[in-house]
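PROTEIN FOLDING TASK:
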Amino acid sequence: MGLNERQNQILNWVQQEDALLVEEMVARFNVSPQTIRKDINQLAERHLVRRTHGGIAPVSSTENLPFDHRQFLNSDAKEAIAADVAKVIPDGASVFLGIGTTVEYVAKALVSHHDLQVFTNNLTVASILGNYPEVRVRVLAGKLRHQHHDLVGEETLSGLRQYYFDYGVLGCGGMDEAQGVLDFDPEEAAVSRVLVEQSRHCLLVADQHKWGRKAMARVQPFSAIDWLFTDALTESQTQLLTSHGVQIKFCS
């Protein structure tokens, strides 16, 4: 059974804070404390949040949410982002599709392209595109992260450095106004860092809820990113990214 819309909003919110109190959630959603406690119980039972005295906190800054839940979180925004990315990438291009569930939505949006060369360390991406012979797929070697369905480590980094891609499509665990693009795991961040370096055009795909998430591993500053595809930004975020030379595409 999936989460309801309020529970999804709570999950997005808590990842941007050190902790949330029951009273704060009651005020925001205009529901009873009993309803919020029921939400907390369901989220905690799935190990999506950590209980605290009087509320909840993120599970960790070193580990992302479980893959099976991330696939469906903010799915409408991810689909819109993916559709706009697919419009930018032409037939015949070489593309690296990196780690993350938003990147998997991009893979689905690229299935009608022709003569595309896709490189990836994302096994779900490879599975999606494996049914479309017009898209040639190469999967880099590496160490399997079972929980996230991807490959990381020195073999992956070495494989990445052998190529220079037309487009690199990059997901992330979080974004910070001072630190730039962040991820949860250092090995994951290392792959994303090299992906940016080995791409002529770097496309960051991230919905608005990635801002302020407590991811600890630094990937790249915003100045290394060419395009951000997102659903919404604040005025200050837009000004910050523009000052770093990032082109912004709002997707809806």
